[in-house]
Amino acid sequence: MGDSNLEDILKDFYVPDYIVGHGSEKVRDLSHVPACPVIVFVNSKSGGQRGGDLIVTYRTLLNKKQVFDLVETAPEEVIQQLYENLENLKGDGDPLASEIQKRLKLIVAGGDGTANWLLGVVSDLKLSPPPPVATMPLGTGNNLPFSFGWGKKNPGIDRQSVMSFLNQVKTAKEMKIDGWHLVMRMRALKEGSYDPIAPSGQTKSLNAFRQVFKPDTLHMDGFHTFRGRFWNYFSMGMDAQVSYAFHSERKLHPEKFKNQLVNQSNYLKLGCTQGWFCTSCFHPSSRNIAQLANVRIMRRQGQWEDLYVPRSIRSIVCLNLSSFSGGLDPWGMPDPKKSRERDLTPPYVDDGLIEIVGFRDAWHGLILLLPKGHGTHLAQTNAVRFEFRKGAADHTYMRIDGEPWKQPLPVDDGSVTVEISHAGQVKMLATPFCRSKNMHESSSPVS
Prior knowledge:
six-stranded antiparallel beta sheet, 24% strand, globular
């Protein structure tokens, strides 16, 4: 492809400096309106440390000012400033600003935790119109990109690979997906800290789950309140513990995690050492879900009711998309007769329902590799509540969209609750290979 042809193609993705907030040269005619203007966010530490090279490629092809390293710049600052600029420019009569705002798309390259972060920002800012988001797989599991047809493997970082991805973004369809709030409350005790602990050992470095303070409407006097949001899944128990061990090890020895295949191998080894394949002192039965918490679900009539969870279940997953642990589908395809008996509907990404699945151990999880394999179907609901039993354990492990943490629990207090509820929707970009289904589509996903 000649340089002149490439330059013409790239114009469709280009955002000028002054639109992003740099420079003052404005456009007063519409000789060329970009068909697919993009703002690109890359986590330079993702992809076995290859994210930095991907940033270089994007900045070579596009305007450097429309490509951001999430290690250096928070996405909320960029997006908020961009939309303020667009509104001001439209008020000044700039013709290009209005067209870019209508056509704008966001690209996020990183792991599932990085994608969760950006989607949360887009949702919180309540943008008009909200830009759809394309997820470039650059993590270990890559469940979000896989769900929408962008693949599981880390992409090439050369110019040709990035150009191919940009062209897919240009032709991708938009799909709405549900978001889910996670709110944890516990009494504010005089002694001890019960802040979530990130794999780094720090209590203030989680993007997915943070404490809220006044004037946040969730704040309650006399309680510590933490909030998070997920688009794919929330899990608690053994799987989150293994994920926590993996992220902790990667923080300590980043040189051992240079590519996706090695990362997945390390993940499997940690699953063995943490007891995911057999009971061990790392995960005593007292931390199995039924012994740890009473689980309640909201029925469609608006009534809470207890959910039966078998005592052998060591992990519970609240699932919004059909991709977990590197593309496996824990919900699978329930038996039609049993589905009717239990009032279960096909899982859609925009139906306001989440599917709740349990696992005994990793051997149970291997069933997902079979054509009709699935976990233990526990429920399908629009709200879930975990009421932790007093003295059951001094901690557990939780995970939101690939971001795990260790959650300390007060052993002498029975007030700890975690509640999950619907939190609006965002727009994703999906390729023809999209596995997810929405309520307005009757076609089956591509296998």
